[in-house]
């Protein structure tokens, strides 16, 4: 094993898995640094779960290679299994048992003696905000509590690598943010997390790097910031005091920023997608503001933001297939990101 291989929690080359005619995973190369949250972002059916199941040794790949901490997932499956844990759509907790009973039972299954199993269960229930519900049957838990218990169950043994397969799908915003806190806590203990998600904001918040996958292929990879800037430096939003001056402001901004202005339905709002380097964008934006001031056009609100991951995804995959991502964008926006 080379030094480089051990610094990577996951390394795959040309990974393929087919189901009949479906190429669920279609030549995936991944390099996941140890000790980080790595996001795999993609819509339903993109191949996320299939990839995770291969990496967790639950499915054999049809082609390519996958290593976890340097161990081959096919030839050294036991080495891999002893280092990883998986939670997601199919969790192992028993609905009829209480949260505490589940964690103690699963703790015994992974090899803890009775007293340490109980102590670990109590610690995890506390850490995950489930102490008050410890003696309640899991079937009476809310979706968010259930998801937190699933994650607690998967880290009874503090795995080196934790797969979280869509851990927040279907959760309300408050439960989602509780799961995010837990993910951050898990990583702080040194566990590498591979997180699959359909939520762009989730990958953006948690992951240090993201692979965007679609139809079994990685269509983009990088830090959230790099992915966002790959489609443009940012978006300038301006709100004017006087709607009468919008046409004039629009012309000035378009000239200063050298980009078309999107006229929003709100009569005082203007949006401009800026291309080029980040620093250039900030400079151009401040010059544009100065031009508006010189012309006596009052600006009530101004912001320069990076494009959202939604816009990145739309730019990468095209608007036609993913209706939910495509919906918020006007046709004018599509042109600018194409
Ligand atoms: N066991 C299976 N048998 C047949 N097709 C499957 C099976 N598992 C997944 N697929 C197909 O493979 C593709 C990828 O699925 P999946 O990995 O579950 O995607 P995701 O987790 O990103 O939603 C989909 O087209 C899905 O229908
Ligand atoms: Mg899935």
Automatic annotation (TrEMBL):
InterPro entries: AAA+_ATPase, ABC_transporter-like_ATP-bd, ABC_transporter-like_CS, ABC_transporter_ATP-binding, DrrA, P-loop_NTPase. It is a peripheral membrane protein. It is found in: Cell membrane. Its main location: membrane. Gene3D superfamilies: P-loop containing nucleotide triphosphate hydrolases (3.40.50.300). Keywords: Antibiotic resistance, ATP-binding, Cell membrane, Membrane, Nucleotide-binding, Translocase, Transport. Residues 10-240 form the ABC transporter domain. The keyword Metal-binding does not apply. PANTHER family: ABC TRANSPORTER ATP-BINDING PROTEIN, DOXORUBICIN RESISTANCE ATP-BINDING PROTEIN DRRA. Belongs to the ABC transporter superfamily. Drug exporter-1 (DrugE1) (TC 3.A.1.105) family. This is Daunorubicin resistance protein DrrA family ABC transporter ATP-binding protein. It comes from Cryptosporangium minutisporangium. The lineage of its organism: Bacteria, Bacillati, Actinomycetota, Actinomycetes, Cryptosporangiales.
């Amino acid at each position: 094993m080379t030094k480089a291989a051990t610094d990577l929690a996951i390394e795959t080359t040309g990974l393929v898995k087919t189901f009949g005619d479906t190429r669920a995973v279609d030549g995936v190369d991944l390099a996941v640094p140890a000790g980080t949250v790595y996001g795999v972002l993609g819509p339903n059916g993109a191949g996320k779960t299939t990839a995770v199941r291969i990496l967790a040794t639950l499915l054999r790949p049809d082609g390519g290679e996958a290593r976890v901490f340097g161990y081959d997932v096919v030839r050294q499956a036991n080495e891999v299994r002893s280092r990883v844990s998986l939670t997601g759509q199919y969790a192992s907790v028993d609905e009829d048992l209480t949260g505490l009973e589940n964690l103690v039972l699963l703790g015994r299954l992974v090899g803890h003696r009775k007293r340490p199993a109980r102590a670990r269960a109590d610690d995890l229930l506390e850490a995950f905000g489930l102490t008050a519900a410890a003696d309640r049957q899991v079937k009476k838990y809310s979706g968010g509590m259930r998801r937190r218990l699933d994650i607690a169950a998967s880290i009874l043994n503090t795995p080196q690598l934790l797969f979280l397969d869509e851990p927040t799908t279907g959760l309300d915003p408050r439960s989602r943010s509780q799961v995010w806190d837990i993910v951050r806590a898990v990583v702080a203990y040194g566990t590498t997390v591979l997180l699959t998600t359909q939520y762009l904001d989730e990958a953006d918040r948690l992951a240090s790097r993201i692979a965007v996958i679609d139809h079994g292929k990685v269509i983009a990879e990088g830090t959230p910031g790099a992915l966002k800037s790959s489609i443009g430096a940012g978006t300038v939003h301006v709100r004017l005091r006087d709607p009468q001056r919008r046409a004039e402001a629009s012309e000035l901004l378009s000239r200063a920023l050298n980009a078309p202005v999107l006229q929003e339905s709100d009569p005082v709002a203007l949006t401009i997608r800026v291309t080029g380097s980040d620093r250039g964008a900030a400079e151009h934006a401040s010059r544009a503001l100065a031009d508006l001031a010189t012309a006596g056009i009052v600006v009530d609100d101004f912001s320069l933001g990076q494009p959202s991951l939604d816009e990145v995804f739309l730019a990468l995959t095209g608007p036609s297939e993913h209706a939910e991502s495509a919906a918020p964008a006007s046709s004018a926006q599509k042109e600018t990101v194409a």
